């Protein structure tokens, strides 16, 4: 007779596989399989190692690139911002000093850390993945437990490859049904966050499941997992399946030959067991979703593209009413009116949410043979130099340039506005990125978050638009 | 890490919900390679006019806020990015505790590593504090109590290990290093899945 084992979720399985030490009076010590490092949240951690005379414990499990304060202007030009230049230089120096492999500015494999991890085959199912960046959840699309950490924890992982963590609760996000034309992965995640609010997932890890998630490509799953943190969850993942294995197969750091077969056999045990119990669940009907857009100053303030901006006077809770009033004042929007038709100054297609080749193909499918509105500045920023190469091989760069858009080098760019790519005060953008906080895309800038389809349609019309009119 | 035992201070009140780390410290200040010098940039875009002069009506710029060690804020404080620059900026300004009804996970973790207490209180206590913004509040970490000037005492939750680290000034990295035999045993049993240097 086989011993009865409690059915477990994939989240619990990955956690259990990485427990190094457990004591009743302290958090669990967990092992980290992959540590991604970038220029912004690492210099103080490397300084900490130096001060203690420590080495990087597992250089083979650590990789670095530059993305946040990195220019997207032609490579070879100097970094104009001296402080940013010093920070990028510091990463190169630290990597050389501590023996960490780096894909620096100028490398053909440089890019946004959450784009290159999966692209290079570094991120694999069942792994624990961390990075000093809250969008590390992206890697969950491959069936990894991936989460953002602070700089102190970056230092802990560099020194010990371990972290002290408390077990998260589990949250099933069940998305069934078929998406309608013009509705995409970005709309699923914006709809989820609009429903649960930006603190709705605090203390939880999401598992996205259901027929609509299964039907998504790996890159679409990355878009969804990426914004888990926008719902408050440190991590979100999708159980690996054949779509996952086909994506990973043959990539630079993926297992090869006999090791590949072994790995796939191991990965097939990861999905959640029948009968496993989640701490919380939510169901979303994919077929009922419309293209989504945010109107406010956090990602939970989202509405279907044709809906009216909510009216504070309709809201009973005084705190929520005050939040909405503040947001509308910052955004200079009138309550009760649709956002559709609102003029935009800038369209940004990029970021770790939506800068992969499939995102660029989608945007190009709308822009092909059309012109962007003369009042709109359109920036298309590929997530990595490899994405850029691929896009150029497919002629997508010509589509963007012919339409009047700007075609840039890889980086985080206007998602976080650290590199000179930014909104001017008062400007409105439709952006495929992940955050619409006050000033996020430049001091005084105002952000409407949406899918690459909605962004491309809005670029052509010069105003917030429903892509279904362009299909 | 410096030890932290008790705090007695007036509060600075920023009552909004969902104060994100981009407001606490805007991303353009993250180009620094140092942990220091961030206190002046705390809440920068709410605190200063575009030309740099302080906004007189913003709470941090009011004379009565000077020297306050406790920030009272709305729900889900510290949401957004993982930047540890947020607790660095708060502590360098002079805060030792933030009181809210909830905190974002990563911010809470980062705060506890920097001797900044994230104190969660129930909504009714939060309301009472908001109604009495001039309160002098006492926070005692050992007993996990918050005492209002009315004499009302409220217990607050805090992770027991984080509490020990704060009270004793225990260094978390040093603690992890004591687990070297466990880490080595784990590594021996789990061959590496990748080699980034290959």
Provide the gyration radius of chain A in Å. Answer: 22 Å
Please outline the major beta sheet of chain B. Answer: 7 strands, mixed
Give the number of helices of chain B: 8
Number of strands of chain A: 19
N-to-C span of chain B: 38 Å
Element-by-element helix/strand order of chain B: EHHEHEHEHEEEHHH
Subunit organisation of the chains: heterodimer
Give the distance, in angstroms, between the N- and C-terminal Cα atoms of chain A.
58 Å
> Any idea how many domains of chain A?
3
The main pleated sheet of chain A reads as:
5 strands, parallel
Shape of chain B: globular
Could you walk me through the main structural features you see in this protein, from its secondary elements to its overall organization?
- The complex is a heterodimer of chains A (about 475) and B (about 200).
- By secondary structure, chain A is an alpha/beta fold.
- Helices cover about 30% and strands about 15% of the residues of chain A.
- Chain A has 15 helices and 19 strands.
- In chain A, the strands form five sheets. In chain A, strands 5-4-3-6-7 form a five-stranded parallel beta sheet. In chain A, strands 17-16-15-18-19 form a five-stranded parallel beta sheet.
- In chain A, helix 2 (about 45-50) crosses helix 5, helix 6 packs parallel to helix 8 and helix 12 runs parallel beside helix 15 (about 450-460).
- The longest helix of chain A is centred in the first third of the chain and has 17 residues, at about 80-100.
- The model of chain A has no long low-confidence stretch (mean pLDDT about 95).
- The two termini of chain B are about 40 Å apart.
- Chain B has a single domain (about 5-170), classed as Aconitase, domain 4 (Alpha-Beta Barrel), CATH 3.20.19.10.
- Chain B is about 30% helix and about 15% strand.
- Chain B is built from eight helices and seven strands; from the N terminus they run βααβαβαβαβββααα.
- By secondary structure, chain B is of the alpha/beta class.
- The interface between A and B is large, with 81 and 58 residues.
